[in-house]
Amino acid sequence: MDRNSIFGIVLIFAILVVFSLINQPSKEDIEAARIRRDSIALVEAEKARQVEQKQQQITQNETTEITIPDSLANSSNLQQKIDQFGVFGQAAIGEQEFYTLENNLMKITFTNKGGRIYSVELKNYQTHDSLPLMLFDGDETLFGLNFFAQNRSIQTDQLYFSPDISLRPVVVSGPEVRTGSEGRTKFNKENPGGKETVSFRLEVAPGRFLEYVYALEYNSYLVDFDMNIQGLEQYIAANQSYLNFTWSFDVPRQERASRFGEDRYTNIMYKFFEDDVDNLSQNKSDEENLSTRVKWIGFKQLFFNSTIIAKEAFPNAYVRSEVYEEHPTYLANFYSDIAIPYQGTANEKVDMQFYFGPNHFQTLRQYDNGLERLVYLGYPVVREVNRYVIIPIFNFLRKYIDNFGIIILLLTIFIKTVLFPFTYKSYISQAKMRALKPEIDEVTKKFGNDKAMEKQQATMALYKKAGVNPMGGCLPMLLQFPILIAMFFFFPTSIELRQESFLWAHDLSTYDSILDLPFTIPFYGDHVSLFCLLMTITTIISTRLNQQTTSAQGMPGMKTMMYMMPVMFLFILNNYSSGLSYYYFLANVITIGQTYIIRSFIDEDKIRAQLQVNKKKPVKKSNFQKRLEDMAKKRGVQMPKK
Question: Global pTM?
Answer without folding.
Answer: 0.75
